[in-house]
Amino acid sequence: MVCASGFINEEHDSLYFRFSLRPPNYKAKCEYQQLLKVDAKRENEMLKRELIPAYSTITYTLRNFSEMQQKEGFVYSDPLVDDLGFTWRLLIYANGHNEGRGCHLSVFLILFEGVTGSRFEYRVELLHRNPLANIKMEGVNVFKLKKIWGWPQYIHHDRLRDEGYLNEDDTLEFRLSICPPDIKLKCEYQQEFIRKLKESHK
Question: pTM value?
Answer without folding.
Answer: 0.73
